[in-house]
Predict the structure.
Amino acid sequence: MLWPGLWLLPSAAAADGLRAGAARVDVTPTQPVTMAGYASRTNLSQGVHDPLSARALAFDQDGARLVLVSLDSLGFYNQTAEPLREAILQACGLKPSELFLCAIHTHSAPTLSLDSEHDPAPNVEYTRDLRVKLAGVVRAALDNLAPVQIGFGSGASPVGVNRREPIQDRDGRPKIVLGRNPAALTDREVQVLKVVRADNGQVAAALFAYPCHSTSLGPHNNLISGDIHGLAAQFLEQYLGHGAVAPEFAGASGDIDPWVRILPDFKTDKGWVPEPVLLATLLGEEVGRVLEDIHTPTTNAPIQTALESFALPGKGASGSPVTVDRTNAFDITVARLGGMAFVGLGGEVFNDLGKMIKAQSPYHPTFILTHCNGAAGYVPTRASYPAGGYEVESSSFAPGAGEQIVEEAVRMLKELP
């Protein structure tokens, strides 16, 4: 069965070397839904600015598989990660470690829920349909594996900026608020994986990861949108043509927002280009530029994967960030694809933690993918706790948890065969 809006790579018989398949399916809601990301936004969606998609990129070599899925969603909150993953695993016969199910963290997508007793019926229906569509798009990618060549490239983009702005309160005391802090160094790397069809040399898939919240649109926006990451993927797919799929991922961006953030709508009067479109196009064009410079092909890329759940130190019952008397679970998924690696983190980690993993990893490049296989919330660095701020205050983790994630992720990478 071919789902509406699904694009496939051409099928091919099994062959030696690396094979890949890519697919995309439309997951735009067809009725008004509650939107995720802002507790103050209680009204239903009032239309669609741009479509939402789920994109799957599957690899196979010698029977070992790796499947990377990007979903235009806020994340797998309300205990939706396991039901969605289980639907894919059962339909496709994957091992749990072979699946990276990631959300792009757009704040203009439906709230996911399977709780029909407490949540709106349209959202529950949407999430139930999503289970079927996700299983279908992954199955389609796997059913259409074909010989490919892959290559890596790296660029940089100014779209993201550190959002922990230091100010003084009315009494002159230092305070951290959500804003813009360009003086703080952030990870601006745009990581790009190019997948080329071996039979005709066309780009079949262009995976990219960039550390930034997709929050250019705020709580007063009521239009469905993929925001920064989703719009960038849409731009790339149109630009590349030939059915190319552009799975997009949010890197380590717990403390990074778009340069222009929290807008009420898509302003278009007097020739104004809406900032979400402008920023997304800037990011998408950087990915396109990097793609043009990737020339070294790889056709042999052994695959190994691993998934572990860790008990990390949590805050005390009082909410104190320094009292540790309980633990919280955090999922880490790692994979090797030849000489490159992927690290999937089940939460919103600060960008310095992502940079640490990349620097210490035995694989270069190492892609950092967040909101992956879980939704554990914010994980700040130890150094950020004394200053406080929204991320620190809302995090369920105690100081040091982020650094432990780095240690465990690097260990898992080093233990891959």
Observations:
- The mean pLDDT is 94.
- Residues 303-415 form one domain.
- Residues 206 and 246 are 5 Å apart (CA to CA).
- The first strand starts at residue 7 and ends at 8.
